[in-house]
TrEMBL record:
It comes from Nocardioides marmoriginsengisoli. Keywords: Thiamine pyrophosphate. Belongs to the TPP enzyme family. This is Thiamine pyrophosphate-binding protein. Pfam families: TPP_enzyme_C, TPP_enzyme_M, TPP_enzyme_N. Residues 1-17, 52-66 have a biased composition (Basic residues). Residues 1-93 are annotated as: Disordered. The keyword Ubl conjugation does not apply. The lineage of its organism: Bacteria, Bacillati, Actinomycetota, Actinomycetes, Propionibacteriales.
Amino acid sequence: MGLGGHRRRCAHGRVVRPVRGAGADQRPVAALRRLDGPAPGRPLGNSVVGARRARREVRRPGRAARRAAPGGEPGSGRVGPAGAGAERRDRRGDLHRFRLAPGGGRVSGPVRLLDQLVGLVAELGNRHLFGVLGDANMFFVDEYRRTGGRYVAAAEEKAAVLMATGYARRGGRPGVVTVTHGPGLANTVAALVDAERDKSPVLVVAGETPPEDPDHLQWLPQRELVEAIGVTYLRVDAPGELAARFAEAVAELTARRGPVVLGIPSTFMFEEVVPEADRPPAAHRPAGRVDEDALDAALGILATSRRGILLAGRGATGPGMREVLLQLAEAADLDVATTLLAKDFFAEHPRDLGVFGTFSTASATERIARADCIVALGASLNRWTTADATLLSGARLIAVDDVVDPAAGAWARPDVVLRADAGDVAALLTQGLRQLGPREPRVRPAADLAPPSPAPIDVYVGALDEALPRDRTVVCDGGRFMVRALHGMRVADPRALVHTLGFGSIGLGLGNAVGAAVAAPEQPTVLLVGDGGLMLAGWSELHTIVRERLDVTIAVFNDAAYGAEHQHFVGRGLDPSVTEFDWPSFAEVASGFGWATATLESPADAERIGPLLRQRDRPTLLDLRLDPLQVPTTTG
């Protein structure tokens, strides 16, 4: 094709048509070199694109060599037998030639790879796909929608991955997201790191540039990029490999090893594949058997404990687990507490100490410091739960988890480890303690779980907590506000709390809120976010929420500053003005996206929150103004 007919693709794979005639001379130099080679008399390595080609020729054969195949000639542009290219073009032009059976079942004959991919995604058990379109994934998304799946289009790839992460965190099943190659995948890095730190089961179906085009404008060493941040990358090197690579991805997700990126070259989508007739289902990991010696050791510790605490993590909050754990607490005369992610699991029980860790109240921290035994079930025992291991000193530790090795972290050295199901272990411990006979219960004062000095932010949070139904999803962004916001906003189910703290970043909450709202549409979703976090997240996904008709409320704790940095400047006696901002009116911006809005200038206006939220008929944003000098960073 001559220069005048060449189509250049923008960063997201959209075709940009050049101006004919003189417009051809206005092309970027790199694009001209990519088409015509280096300038006469100029070495290949001196051109921008040519230099990249020269570097890659060390690792991979040249384009002409790869294109040569039986029936093809080096440099001819043909792959395989003569006419194969024409057949592939015919298949691309016939979107309905190969189709999965109704309902997503398999057919016996050949199908397009994109049809097989749609069927494999459907077999994961959800019918939601998040993503951003590009030329590498657009036909997959289109076919997914044609076969009845719901596609939630994000405006930006990082937000798309965050949506899938929020969906997984709230729904308890894998989130699936698709992005195009190169820039599309590069934009997901921060969101992928957050999902990896939390081991969230997220499958990213990413395009790859055509293998036969090493000079593609959007080429990127995708595997190296993804693996550098600790995320698994599985590449489909041939169309027939899709089912095997997909099964590997599902195994990773099932084992709770975090997100997986599945890379598929864009040119594979319309290739024919023959689905396996009876592919074996993913292996189910059986629960570990309880070690009887370890169980006896744990019983000995509990039987002699006088100030013990049962610590429940999210891994021990499944259906029926509350009663099972409370029976153990009664049998061993233990106080009960939870990690942040299991917040409110024991709410209103007289033994409850609230959150165990850096979010503990002063009263709970005192009780924890006196403990002589801690039995942790389904808890990761990280640095925040253990407060850099300081909360575990002086207490014997029994750790129970069937997924994560409790002894593998740097912050806990358990005396007894039980790698088995938390419910099974709790029931066996309860049975063993009851066989030992009753014990005299200790006298315990009720734990004071309220902040001793209510701050202005507590007034806002209390009004939000009362105004929204108790059955709600709470998504919390990062920021100084979150200490009091998380303390005051209750949830009926620990899985209804979606955090975004894995990477220590602000600005990750908005995407998570979209995904969580899709996963639990029967409940309202409230996003707690600071002004800096909302600005960093960007406003574009407000339109996504309106378009998808999601019941989302955003509460912006707006101190017109980067609060944590503001605190550091003030603490050193320095001028904090560099951390302060004159933001635009959040209410006016959100109104432009079709949101209901209100600006509350001070906590004295908090009484307006109830009527506003009870009468809401569309997404609502509340701009809650605060003084940056009056936002506490502790629970007490």
